[in-house]
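Protein record
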Amino acid sequence: MADPSLGDIAVAITQLMQRYNLTMDQFNAWLTGNGMVTLTDAAGGSRTVPSAANVLRADGSNASGTWPISVSGVAGSVKSLPGDQVLQALGYRPPRQDNVPDTKAAAAYMRLGTFNCPQGGAKLALMLLFGNGYNAINGQLGMATLLFSTSNGAAQQPGSTGPFFGAATAMVFGSVGCTFMVCQNGTTSYTVYAQLPAWAGANSCSAFGDTTSGGWAASPAHVGAALPAGNYLAVQPQPLLTTSQFSTVPVPAPAYTRATAPAAAAYAGATVYITDAAGGAAIAFSNGTAWISVRTGNPV
């Protein structure tokens, strides 16, 4: 996992002080003390706790030496405090956000990152902010969420080139759509891509999930109009409707090619939009066996 940024450290220290209602002087006493130290919080309460030297560890061993910190009034500056030590004392890592490049004049695939995880139901939640233009138009905004889980190690579903040991679903809020593509690098590694429309803008992605095998490693990059070769699961986000959209905005059917459409047997009665259906792009419905084009009445 990447080292925390200065912003991560600042947020963590602030939250640590707020959590225990400490003044900067009391934080300094905890940081520079040895053994057990007694702290008095801003409300006058006191508690005896292990000092920083006893509980902050960067590599699993006790910290030692002098912590260089200077305090003037209520302001202080930490000169050499590793961020992971503060985060360990806080008990959690602040959420991370990563910038995702603009698509510019043409729709393109964006690599978002890789989820390193075990089989056995390891889960990932990812949120992506994007658009399809930046012309001060309300309908150009979108926010999509992907939920992913590995299987039990034996269960599988068809991927684009072979068995896929995982499952995913997605939702999108707003008037702009996207498609997630999850590439199975192996049964313990999955890279997530998103196909975004032209002029997606300055986008942002955040994710969290199981960290047993390393967890999420962000690596946003513009990969162009085609995906790298691999075994993919296509995930079309389903729209979340606002109250006004029920009566004013048409809801598009999720779009697929014949190759990426989900198994019709799993979606009896559902409708999709097949962009390369025989006879031309068409709405299709599942009869429980195949996707039937409303244009021709035949399987797509």
In short: The CA atoms of residues 74 and 250 lie 56 Å apart. Residues 57-79 have pLDDT under 50 and may be disordered. The two ends are 45 Å apart (CA to CA).
